[in-house]
Amino acid sequence: MGDMMGLMGKMKDLQANMKTAQEQLSGIVETAESGGGMVKATVNGQKTLVGLEIDPELVNPDDKEMLQDLVVAAVNKALENIEPKVKEHLQKATAGVMPNIPGFDLSSLMK
Fold first, then answer.
1. Which of 3, 40, 43, 46 could bridge to 78 as Cys pair (CB 3.0-4.6 Å)?
2. How far apart are CA 24 and CA 33, in angstroms?
C-alpha cells in the first residue's frame, strides 16, 4: 500500500512539474531563416509563430509564390529546430520524478 501512495505522490509531482514546464515553453524561442536570411521566422516552445521578418526587397507582387515558399521554409525550419530544446526542457523539468524510459517522449503530451 505504501508503494501505491508513493506512486500517487510522484504522479502529483510529475503533474505539477509538467504544468510549470508547459508554462515556461513560451520563453524558449528559436529563429530560422530562408532565402539567405531574407526571411526570418521565430517560434516558441509552444510551437507558435511569434515573429516574422521579411526583407523589403522580397515584396514583389509579381512573384508572391517565392515569398510564400520562403516564409513556409523558414517557419518549418524554426519549428524543426525548436523540438530538441523542448525535449531538453521537459527532461530537466521531470528529472528525479519521472524515470528515464527509452522511447518515452514527454513532448507529445504538450501538443
1. 43
2. 24
